[in-house]
Amino acid sequence: MPFKSKAQRRKFAELLVEGKITDEQYEEWNRSTGKKVLPERLHPKPSSTQKRRTATAPARKRRRK
Q1: Most distant CA atoms of the chain, gap in Å
Q2: pTM score, whole prediction
Q3: Residue 20 burial (10 A CB sphere; 0-12, 13-18, 19+)
Q4: Is residue 28 situated within a structural domain?
Q5: Is there a smaller number of Cβ atoms within 10 Å at the N or the C end of the chain?
């Protein structure tokens, strides 16, 4: 099964270094991927388009009588 993204390839390389997968498994995936140009991530996170809050004066504390 080929790699689907650069992030996946990095993760498998990390697993190889940690000894969780064998060299043969990694090479099999690498060979089946070939020379494809892979995207950084298969499903990128949606960009955060949060509303900007305008700067306001700090709230004043009320005095108790």
Answers
A1: 78
A2: 0.62
A3: exposed
A4: yes
A5: C
